[in-house]
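Note to self: user wants both folds in one dump. Writing first protein now.
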Amino acid sequence: MVLSLIYISFPGYFTPLPLALVGCTASTLGRFILSYIGTASRGVMSEGRKWSLDKLRKTVESKKGGGFLLSLAVALSPLPSNAYFIAVGMMKYQVLEIFAGFMLGRLLSYWLMINLTKVASHSLEELFRNELYTVTIIDLIGIGSAIFLTLIDWDKLIREKRLGIISPKLRRH
């Protein structure tokens, strides 16, 4: 939305591809910070939860290009990616593969969105007025998903094809 607003507010100053590149770079840097927060939060996780997330990471890593393709799909989807990157940090996943997929996906989606801005039939004022409620709900769902991701016993799910939950326990220092 911000990129589209910049594009239509300053006609002739920006072309879609460089504007999309700036936007996807900023978005990717923000997600890098979120992954770092996820990595730092491992300190309060139980060893069982860490082991389970490590098992998930190894499974994704075992698929050639798995992290790249997963991140590309996340970037192209309409779902929020913040929770995904916190989870990536919790898993201590290979950063380059994840961020390359995300950056390519965001570049494509932002470029398309900027180009479609010209033909959009809705007024931006109406879109902004109705978006806040929807964005808040989607972000809350994303945060809940990130929390749920850490509760799953990934080893059991991968090995036995059964969903297991690791009970939440914070380590005491």
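First done. Writing the second protein, which came from a different request thread.
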Amino acid sequence: MELVLQQKQTLNLVMTAELRQAINLLQYSTYDLYQYIQEQQAENPLIELVDHVQNMYTNRSASTPNYSNEFPPDPLDFTADDRRNLYDELTEQVNVMSLSEELYALTHYLIQNIDENGYLQVEITDVVAQLNVSSEQVEAGLKIIQQLEPIGIGGRNLAECLAIQAAHYYPEDEFLYQLITQDLERLANRQWEAIAATYECSLEDIQEAFTRIQTFDPKPGAAFATNSAEYIEPDVIVDMKDGKFTIQLNDSYIPEIRINRDYLPLIQQKNDMSSYINHQYKKFQWLKNSIEQRRDTILKITQAIINHQLDFFHYGFSRLKPLTLKNIADEIEMHESTVSRATMNKMIQTAQGTFDMRRLFATGLKRSDGSSTSQTTVKMILKEVIDQEDKSKPLSDQKIADYLKEEKEITISRRTVAKYREELNIPSSRQRRQVVRQ
């Protein structure tokens, strides 16, 4: 073996830092872009930001915070939040009861271990060990909590939660209570013939019990959840004006990027400072150009989508046509990956609602006449067929597939029907079956 030192010329594709940042910039949402620009200002002394958002509060005192680089404050943010949570509601009910000191402390401990849905999240044995009390005392405290409102609070599982509600609303219906505590799983799977044979009752009796259970609340504590509402901020707005669709980027709060002219004289000098300033100046130019290029790319892609999906923008998802990233890429002469990144993390606001931009792309299914229809349209047809079926004899997945082929000229397999049905959260035919009273 001999060691040899030799030169070799190769050609490699290298992704520069600027190219990597440009790719990230394209797939940012508008808010992500806003944050990125703020970060760039902090790193680059040549960048000045001019905020176009007019502050709604013009008469501030000297002690009022400055919001020049933030969103204007929402008046609702300064309103006292008087919403009651589940813990407050249960505690108030226990406080008016005449309980011993030990039982009072025990019930408060149990309340603190109830989750936001109203379920007890601690085992009886754990409470016994931690508080050095008897299991009988814990059961007594739990019984008190399970009598509080909202009805169903304090259940350790779904069956117990529903059983509490059954005992409260239908105290005379022992059969209902028995079904919940002993046969809830079979009842949920609508194995009604087997249940009828076990209890020697009619299908109508089981149907009545099932109907009553459907009126119960499986999450009695959820009404007191304190989660604040989440608002969707669209990145692209499509509107109709004078009979034509207009496109607007929802970036009015994105500040204007300007150069700090105090540093410009240093560019012409020949020293270490000028080298640094020149580098920051190039980064400033790159940022402005990349943002403008991002804007043009998103507008161009959105216009191409509108051209392909005109029926959707007029009539909704039932008229959504098959569309792929490649279709758009070919039309606007861009790479498919560019279209993918530009539509990533983008919300679009239309007359049909606000949703992820990717929903406007849909793979197609062939019809018998050679044309295509989108998966979204097929799912809507499938849901309509199931909504109109005979509830006493619901259609199987194979019968739905046969119907789509014969009546709608859409060729689809049974497995695909089952997949779409599960995506729509529609139960199987056995679980959809109901007993129709004569």
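Dump finished. Worth passing along: The first strand starts at residue 47 and ends at 50.
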